[in-house]
Specification:
rod-shaped; about 80% helix; MFS_trans_sf; transmembrane; membrane; transmembrane helix; mainly alpha
């Protein structure tokens, strides 16, 4: 009975965390299916890794935009 409950917990985690990971990645321009597969391999932690990657990409974009605003115009 304990083994059945453990398998059920793993099955539910695969079905929940993999699509969430894929959805997060897709919203930030990454491949849904690649991240879905990663979510199947590493169910719980994949969500946090996808969020970290999204925040890192967003921060890099903000830095690039800020650097572009600080540059003087080309005609000056």
């Amino acid at each position: 009975m304990f083994l059945f409950r453990l398998l059920l917990i793993f099955a539910v985690s695969f079905l929940v965390f993999a699509p969430i990971t894929g959805y997060i990645a897709y919203n930030y321009g990454r491949s849904f299916w690649r991240w879905f597969g990663f979510g199947l391999v590493v169910p719980f932690f994949s969500v946090f890794i996808a969020l970290f990657m999204a925040m890192r990409d967003r921060r890099a974009e903000e830095k690039a935009e800020e650097a572009q605003r600080r540059q003087p115009p080309h005609g000056a």
